From TrEMBL:
Lineage: Bacteria, Pseudomonadati, Pseudomonadota, Alphaproteobacteria, Hyphomicrobiales
Transmembrane segments: 62-82, 103-127, 139-157, 169-191, 197-226, 247-269, 281-305, 326-351, 363-382, 403-424, 430-449
PANTHER family named in the record: FMN_FAD EXPORTER YEEO-RELATED, MULTIDRUG RESISTANCE PROTEIN NORM-RELATED
Official protein name in the record: MATE family efflux transporter
Keyword field contains Nuclease: no
Originating species: Microvirga terrae
Pfam families listed in its UniProt record: MatE (PF01554)
Keyword line: Membrane, Transmembrane, Transmembrane helix, Transport
NCBIfam families named among the record's database cross-references: matE
Amino acid sequence: MIHRTSPIERAAWMAELRATLSLGWPLVLATVAQNALITSDVILMGWMGSGALAAGALGTNLYFAFLIFGIGLVNATSPMIAEELGRKRHSVREVRRTVRQGLWACVTVAVPIWIVAWNGEAILLAIGQEAGLARDAGQYIRALQWSLLPFLFFLVLRSFLAALERPGWALFIGLLAIPVNFGAAYVLMVGSFGLPALGLIGVGIGTIISSIFMFLGLALVIVLHPKFRRYHVFGRFWRADWPRYRTLWRIGVPIGLTLMFEVTIFNAAAMLMGRIGASELAAHAVALQIASFCFSVPLGIGQAVTVRVGRAYGAQDAEGVTRAGWTSFALGTGFMVVTASLMLFAPHLLLGVFLDVGDPKNALVIDLARTFLVVAAIFQLVDGAQAVGAGMLRGLQDTRVPMLYAAFGYWGVGLPLGTLLAFGTSLRGVGIWIGLASGLAVVACLMLWRWLHRDRLGLVTAAPQDVQEAFAS
């Protein structure tokens, strides 16, 4: 029997689509803005020369390996606040307490990261990096690390606004931070206006300034804006809420580890590609940059679906959970179908942004990158699916098992298979990309399986009819 949707059901799906798009596009652009901050630093490092660029990239990669865990941890505030607002739309006290404990968690995780990052040079020397590069990278990290705490504070406040479905202010502040970061870093790097030329350290201090700017700018909006100031998110900052603090860590630690598993598998892939050859590594970097840019869209949609599912979860609205999840899944994978088509049918259009396709010197790299993009087309679909799928499950505050899926898919399947195909067959660099795509596909399938069986697994419970009607009103 064919199920026909009623006008009421169609209206509910369309309302969910509008809500997801309204919440999702600022989060997508905010992700792009964060990437622009990193890109501006890379540009400045390149102006100093290849040595500074190499040291800066080395330091950034090491620092980001620790930062990504902190980002995942504080992202737990988003589903927690969304659940509270779903349970009680005008909740103030519970939302304020969650924000407060999120800020506490920022301080807690920052201290050990600072201790480790301060010894960045020693870590880089221990893993076999050249002494001069390790010294310069270590000095850069010692400046960069102080941007960690204000940046994590900013993310907590951004999660607060996202859960309120008002992400536009965070986007606005993030866009303003791009020229602030570039201007401050440039002045301190070259020594303008009578200031000493600090080189890489100046770029790191520029990041500190932009991070403080983002935090203070968003804090000012929250304190002054009539829609936000009633929450008094900074009130009684010293008051503990230990059960809520433990819940945040219970949800957030698996998110942080999941992100680390994903980031480190790409770091490992780059190192393996470097063992194959310089041309393969260059082609890999270009193809991965294209894929990473496209990934900003499902990543932003994944953040939006966490809020939408979390609100329905808090209201115990099982139908709302279903609509929120599948709407975002369709948006995320639908966009990736478009980008995958471009990779298959117009690769030169994409590669021309990074390389002169008419220069014979680039012929080998372009041919390799075009081949990688064929695999990346499949990569796009499963990467978008796993990113949105993870966001769907996070809305249900289900993070521990997805973390295990990520560990198995990336490190149990993706890396071993990629290594085997790259060095045990004639596939070489293509083998590494097949491994990456296979690992992502495994994670995406496992995430989707868990979402499909969410009721049987007890991840979500239907609410009494009066509760659902109150949430929908």
